[in-house]
Amino acid sequence: MKVCIILNGEIKNYDKTKEIILREKYDYIIGADGGCNHLYKMNIIPKYIIGDLDSIDKDLVYYYKNRNVLFKTYPSHKDETDSEICIYLAKELEAKRIDFYGALGGRIDHTLANIGLMHYVREMNIEPRMITSEEEITTIKNEEIILHGKRGDTISIIPIMTDANNITLKNLEYPLNNAKMGYLSSLGISNVMLDDECSIKIEDGYALIIRNYKVNL
Q1: What is the pLDDT of residues 152-171, one digit of tens each?
Q2: For residue 184, how many other CB atoms are within 10 A of its CB?
Q3: 71 and 121, same domain (yes or no)
Q4: Disulfide: which of 74, 90, 154, 212 matches 95 by Cβ 3.0-4.6 Å?
Q5: Domains held by the chain: number
Q6: Cα 163 from Cα 166, distance rounded (Å)
Q7: Does the pTM of the predicted model rise above 0.85?
């Protein structure tokens, strides 16, 4: 089950973002309040709209209600952000993967909090990704992943929370074998894929994996 959540951050290229969303064929699309302004510009109808409706264009509330979109509204004074409430709904829908759009850019506090939500989602045993028209961000924790992309894509591995140990990178321009990266180290910045997939293994640690594919879209 794949769920897409559209947030109220920055979306630079609506055409490319819409192309990605349609290609992924999500089971459910959820608009988080002002994220629905982005959906409208891409001519995409969500299944659900979540939030206190303080950021969505007021005319769009009527527009989406007339298209049978399900609204779940909450007061503006609450402990959870709209993003978190969307995640709760995605979990109820039995999502195995949650992709976030519009999660970056704009206010830095929102951007950092949204990146932090990826850890929260992973702790639910749900795969998180953040996607823009230029890049894809995921996380890795004590595991090995095969990352799919295209030759020449830029890959950055950034340890978060603590140092990462026993890192092995294969099929990248700068390979590593059982190496260590310090917390927020720049060592893993701007590696390059040598083929259409690469292997990233971290035996002990947690890191953000950022694939920049701007040149390939």
Answers
A1: 999 999 999 899 999 999 99
A2: 12
A3: yes
A4: 90
A5: 2
A6: 10
A7: yes
